[in-house]
C-alpha cells in the first residue's frame, strides 16, 4: 500500500500483458469469426432439420424426396439447377425458399401438383397466419439448401434399416382401436368383422393380409398409417376417391386404429 | 599548456532545477492540465517523494479538480489494508464502469425487437471484430458485479462497518445491491434465446403473485400477457437507461458518505484493540490519495482488466441458446443463478408468501440491520450472534439455490430424464460433444451391443445411456425397458441421432415409446470440413 513503485511496475506489467493479449486475440479474430459463421450455419441446419420433420415432411417426404402429387422433391437436381429459371425468380435460391415457405402457393406452378380449387401450399409465415417465425424460415432454407450435395450426386446417405418403433400391438390396444373404428365413423364406409358390412369403401376384413401386396416397398403398417394421414394416397381400383372423412385423431388413437387393423388377418 | 578541463563541462544541474528554470512553458502547461501541479511536483508524485511546494499542491488539487474533489485526500493506513476491505467495493464499481463502457459499444449492434435481437447477437459474434469478446466481458463483469457486491455486503457487516454514521451508507448500499440484481436480470432477457426468455417469464410471473396489483404489475413489466415486442423494449430501456442512471445516482450518494463523511472504517482491532502507541500511530498514519492511493487504484484497474479479459478469452463464453419460442416451454427452465434461491423458495410453497413476501421481508431486514444491531463491539469474536446469523444466512442461500436447480424435486418422466441428461434441449450435453466422425452410422441396442466394441467417445456415451436405462429399469420406473440409439446419415455433414426408449406402462397396459431426435452438424463446434 505504501509502495507506489511496486504498484506502478506491476500495474504497467499488467497493462502490457493486457495489450499483448488483445493484440494476439485480434490476430485470431478473422479465424474466430469464420468459425462462428460456420457454427451459426450448422445450428441453422440442425434447427431446420427439426422444423422440416415437424412441418414439411408430410408433403415433401422425410428426406425431401417428395410425396406423390402432394409436394415436389426438394433434394433433386431439378430443384437446385432449374427451379429458379423455371419460375423466373430473380434472387437467390435461399430467398426463393424462404419466400415460398412464407407465402405458400395459391396454385401450383406445375400441372402435376395443381390443387383442385384448393390452396396448393398454405402460407407458413406468422405474418400470414402460419406458425413460422422469420428465423425459422431462414433455418428451413439453410436445411433445404444443404441437399445440394445430394442433388448433385456428391453425397449419398448410407442406407440403414431402422426398426419401426413398437407401438404396442397388443390385444388391449387393438380392442381400443376396434371401438374407435365404430365411434370415429370408419364403419360407415368400411366392412370389418363385428363392425358392420358397409360397401362404400374397400372391405377391411382381412386388410392385414391383403395390404401386404398393395404397394411395393410399403409395410402393412406404413401403408395403413399413410392411408390415414393422406386419405387418397392409395385409391383401390374400383373405388372413387375418399370424400367422406376428415376427422381428427390423436397419435395414440392412430396407433390404436392401426393396431386394430393389423389384427385383421 | 594548462587547460582547465572542468571549465569545458557545463555546470551540473539537478534535473529538478532544469525543469524549474528551462521548461517554463511546459511547466505552465502541466499546471493547467494537472490541477495546479507542476512538472517537478508530478515527477515527485510518481517517485513517491514528498511534496515539493508548500502548501502541498497535492491537497490543493483536490479543491481544483472536480474528479479529485470527489475523492478523499487521505485515508488512515489501517483502513487501506488489503485484508480489511479486500477492495470489494472498488471492484464492484470497477465492474459497473466496465459494464457502462462495454454496454455502450454493444448498443451499437443490438436490435431490441423479437425479430432482430437474436440475429443481432449472432451478427455481433460472426461479423464484428472483438464482438464476442465484448459480449463475454459484459456478461462476465455483470456476474462479477453481483458476486462482488454480495461479498462487499458481507465484509461490511462482518467488520461492523455499518453502524452509527455509516448507517445511511449501508442503506444506499442495500439499494445498490438491489439495483445490481435488477440490472443483471433485465439484461438477461436481451439475447432473446430460450434460456433468457423462459427465465424472465418465470421471474416476471412472480410479480403476478403480488396481492391486489399483481396482474397489473405483471402486464406492466411484460407489456402484455406474455413477453413480446413491448416487453423486450421495456426490459431494454430499463437496462440501458433507467436502471444505470439510478445506479449511478445511488452510487454517487453511497460513495459521498465514504469520501466526505466517514471514510473507510478502521479495522476493529485498531479501534478497539490494545495497541502499543507506536503501532497505533502507524495504523492511523495518513496515506495520501496523491500519489499512493491513486497509483494503487490504477494498479488494481490494470490487474482487474487483465483478469477480466484473460478470463473472457480463455475461460468464459457467454451462453447463447436457440431462438426464444413463446410457444414451446422448455422441459427444464432455470432462473439466473443469482435467483436460484428464489426458485428454491417457490418450490417450497405458496408463491405470494415465499416468492414475494419472503424476499421483501429479507430486503426490509437488510435495511434495518444497522438499527437492529445493538452490539457495542466491532470485533467479530465479540459478536457471535452476528457471525452465526451470517453463516446461517449464507448456508440458507446456498441450500435454497440447490433446491432451486431444475432437477430438484421436479419429477420428469424417467425416459425424458435420460434423454435430457444425454442430449439436453438447450446447451451441449454428452451426445453433442461427440466429434462428428466418431458417430458411427448404425442401430445400437442397449444390452445387445457392447459399448467396448464402439469408437471410444461414442462408446462411453452409449455405455452411460445403457447404465441409466438399466438403473431406471431396476428401480421399476421403466419396466421391460428396451432402448435404442440410432445414428443415421441425413444430409451432407448432417446426422440424425435418435434416442428411443420403450417400456410397458403398467396402468395403461400397453407399450409406450419415448423418442428424441437430434440433428448434429459437423461444424457446430467449429469443426472444419474434411
Walk me through the structure:
The complex is a heterodimer of chains A (265) and B (530). Chain A is mainly alpha-helical and 265 residues long. Chain A has helices at residues 4-60, 77-87, 93-103, 134-145, 148-151, 171-183, 207-210, 220-229, 251-262. Chain B has 530 residues and is α+β, with helices and mostly antiparallel strands. Chain B has 22 helices and six strands. Chain B has helices at residues 15-22, 24-33, 39-47, 57-64, 66-69, 82-85, 88-109, 117-127, 131-158, 167-189, 194-205, 214-222, 229-262, 268-272, 277-283, 289-314, 340-348, 351-372, 384-404, 414-422, 429-432, 456-474; strands at residues 74-76, 286-288, 442-445, 482-491, 494-505, 510-521. Chain B has a four-stranded antiparallel β-sheet with strand order 3-4-5-6, with helices on one face. A two-stranded antiparallel sheet of chain B has the order 1-2. In chain B, a hairpin with a 2-residue loop joins strand 4 and strand 5. In chain B, helix 10 runs antiparallel to helix 18 (351-372), helix 17 packs across helix 19 and helix 20 (414-422) packs antiparallel against helix 22 (456-474). The longest helix of chain B has 34 residues, at 229-262. Chain B starts with 14 loop residues before the first helix and ends in a 9-residue tail after the last strand. In chain B, 35% of the residues are buried. At the A-B interface, helix 1, helix 4 and helix 5 of A face helix 8, helix 16, strand 4, strand 5 and strand 6 of B.
Would you summarize the structure shown here?
The complex is a heterodimer of chains A (265) and B (530). Chain A is mostly helical and 265 residues long.
